[in-house]
Please model this.
Amino acid sequence: MFTGIVEEIGKVTNIRNSPKSSILTIKGDKIFEDLKLGDSVAVNGVCLTVSNLEKQSFNADTTSETLDRTSLGMLKTGSNVNLERAISANGRFGGHIVTGHIDGTGIIAAIRRDERTVWITFTAEPAILKYIIEKGSITVDGISLTVASLQPGAFSVAVIPHTEKSTTLLTKSKGEKVNLECDILGKYVERFVNRNEPKKCVITEKYLAESGF
Model:
């Protein structure tokens, strides 16, 4: 589990591609303080397992599912990536619950600078947008962000200077793809509410009373 608080920006130093998978070699600094073989690292928000570890770099395997669902297939040698180790039991929970299991990708539709804040608007598929709420949390390329506003087919976030400096988000341009992970709580609530309902569930006062609320 992660928090969406990026620890550092790493660099892809090598990519070995196969027809349905790839092996990434990523160089970093801070995350290697206690990184071990088999540990989980969020790479642009995607949970990957350390399969080989050297002094300041690690290898991670990506499957066809990962390449189909995320933007990792677009990485090149020299690409910068956001890195976060899995949260430790005694760590501060500064962001929100992030699993590293990407729901899909979004597209940067607009970037607007407003003094020290940068507003970014993303478009996404309805299957993703239905879980996004105003003032809720969203993970974009591994970064925990607050949804500032919702529009038809899109949502916007406000990026502060620290996030701009500490992540790769504002190195991207309009039209580029980003990884999106919605807040997991909404997905679980939907599943629990609908799991025993053969038809579309409509939550009413009567339904809540019959369910013990």
Remarks:
- The chain has two domains: 8-85, 104-190.
- The mean pLDDT is 93.
- The first strand starts at residue 8 and ends at 18.
- Residues 8-85 form a domain with the Elongation Factor Tu (Ef-tu); domain 3 fold (CATH 2.40.30.20).
